[in-house]
Predict the 3D structure of the following.
Amino acid sequence: MGKGGSLSEGVIKKILLSYTYVAIWIFLSFTVIVYNKYILDKKMYNWPFPISLTMIHMSFCAALAFLLVRVFKLVEPITMSRDVYLSSVVPIGALYSLSLWLSNSAYIYLSVSFIQMLKALMPVAVYSIGVSFKKETFKTDTMVNMLSISFGVAIAAYGEARFDTWGVILQLGAVVFEATRLVLIQILLTSKGITLNPITSLYYVAPCCLAFLLVPWIYVEYPTLRDTSSFHLDYVIFGTNSLCAFALNLAVFLLVGKTSALTMNVAGVVKDWLLIAFSWSVIKDTVTPINLVGYGLAFLGVAYYNHSKLQALKAKEAQKKVPNADEEANNRLLEAESDGREEK
């Protein structure tokens, strides 16, 4: 079929690869969430130590990241001074440790489906904190959209059959800390020209997380673990759980690198609906019609927010192309003038 046929095959291959990356990310993200729920839930594996679980994840991920960066040299490290590390990476590590601690703690009190519904507030938190740090411009229509997402989540919370106030506080705290971390990455790292992929991020941030989590672990979980002899870990359970957590970071790297961050956001919506369905059908969590109506409203708000972000990115790219086009035209004109002088 000539050139047209080969082009079509190339496009089809690219589409199939993109869907493969999306499927891998959804599967791993799905697996980590359900696995964490299984380990922490008192009605399942019954190991309710979220700080310890987070520390196991961070230790495993830090060790593998060190091997990939320093030993096998498969990933290039970032040049970073001690001052930049202390002033930029350490605060981000502190926020990340708090976000993971609280989000894992929420699995003890709330259903998987309801946690996913509460996570729909992430764009609201990121936008609100971005405006307060002057990284986002306040727009009335965007704020109205944020309020509609919040309203949808409030309806979902009203319809929750297993509503637990402490669990909701933990999950909302995790959302706030994670949103603050994302905004601070822009302020403290991106503005300085430092870009961390998931592997270098783990290499620099995971040791900070371990250090920050060690203090609450000593006072909150260590005494109970010592008294109940819960230090005897099932290496298969915790090893595969940690491996899934690390593989998820690799999948994020692949998905964003080969597609885009927006693709990951859209895939995240698909994953949330799958988790809600799984939570209802397999784990037998109660999902009420009011839950679904509320989350449906929040979902529409998030979808509109992602659409607006995409349009803004397209407009920004179009503005970049105009000067480039003018520069190319000037270059062609100079080349033509040069050729004309040579002919003379």
